[in-house]
Design brief:
Layout (H helix, E strand, L loop, with lengths): L2 H11 L8 E10 L4 E11 L5 H5 L7 H18 L5 E5 L13 H10 L7 E6 L4 H16 L3 E7 L7 H6 L3 E4 L1 H4 L6 H17 L2 E5 L4 H9 L4 E3 L7 E2 L9 H36 L1
Parallel strand pairs: 2-3, 3-4, 4-5, 5-6, 6-7, 7-8
Antiparallel strand pairs: 1-2, 1-8, 1-9
Length: 287
């Protein structure tokens, strides 16, 4: 790395927002099909577990981009220390969604390489926004990060005005559904149909769908029925401060029972279909 790159990394690590006041919590994305962890999102916290909103309130105007890079470096540092071997989700819209321009992609890649963390395991999340500039530049931003080797995701999909057509242009590796789409979905058949449509399109495009903010077994069941199998939320694990939290064991028995019922239902449907086919065949032969 040349001197300018080294200086850039040094400036990030010594950003005037003191890193000693910052840390990260990690919350998993869980694949219910095989009980595996698909990835972890790094969430900004104070060292005494203060919420991100408290931290953001102390960012001076003009320091937003530097703050995001400092947080990114810290997240990769901690993930490397914790031996994260899955995706590491880093949201670049924490503090300055209006000023993301993609030019920081090469610097974040350098940060990851300097810490021996594989760039392809860093999932850059860009929040869907009602901001016109971000909305119009979403394809360009995602392409810039893909060109550097990052995985990419659209966070809070459904929050703004992006349509499904943008997925064909952007081709992110994943979308993270807005919590507004997930909350109480088990009581909303229309919303279930919307999610099922999104999941079908994403499946055909090779895009993973992650349901965020899942808190109840009912929400989990409804989302699974809609074709979603990746989840993030309190139902599975609360964020772990400076650690990778374990999946709550109580969640699995209910999910396994539901999967067994689904398999039995599928077997019955296949049997009925085979029976109907045999009857139709016999009718044709009798004529």
């Amino acid at each position: 790395m040349d001197d300018s790159g080294s200086n850039g990394l040094l400036q990030v690590s010594k950003h005037p927002i003191r890193r000693c006041d910052l840390t990260m919590a990690f919350q998993p994305f869980v694949d219910v099909n095989d009980k595996s962890v698909y990835g972890y999102e790094a969430l900004v916290r104070g060292t005494n577990n203060e919420p991100a909103s408290d931290i953001f309130a102390h960012i001076a105007q003009g320091e937003e981009a530097g703050f995001d890079l400092a947080c990114t470096a810290l997240a990769i540092d901690l993930a490397s220390t914790l031996n994260v071997s899955t995706y590491l989700g880093i949201n670049l819209s924490r503090a300055h969604s209006g000023s993301i321009d993609g030019n920081e992609a090469h610097l974040i890649a350098a940060i990851a390489r300097a810490r021996d963390f594989p760039v392809q395991r860093v999932m850059i999340e860009i929040t869907e926004s009602r901001d016109r500039v971000i909305r119009e530049r979403m394809p360009e931003l995602l392409c810039r990060y893909k060109a550097e080797g990052f995985a990419t995701a659209i966070d809070r999909f459904g929050l703004g005005d992006l349509g499904l057509d943008v997925l064909g242009h952007c081709r992110p590796d994943a979308i993270k559904l807005s919590t507004s789409l997930v909350r109480d979905i088990d009581a909303d058949p229309v919303q279930c149909s919307v999610i099922a449509g999104i999941a079908q399109v994403c499946n055909e495009l090779g895009i993973q769908v992650i349901a965020v903010g899942v808190e109840t077994a009912g929400e989990c069941r409804a989302l699974r029925d809609a074709g979603v199998h990746l989840f993030q939320g309190y139902l599975f694990a609360h964020p772990g401060l400076n650690r990778l939290p374990a999946i709550l064991p109580a969640v699995w028995p209910g999910i396994e029972r539901r999967m067994q019922l689904d398999r039995r239902r599928g077997d019955r449907d296949l049997a009925r279909g085979a029976g109907r086919g045999a009857v139709r065949g016999a009718d044709r032969r009798s004529h």
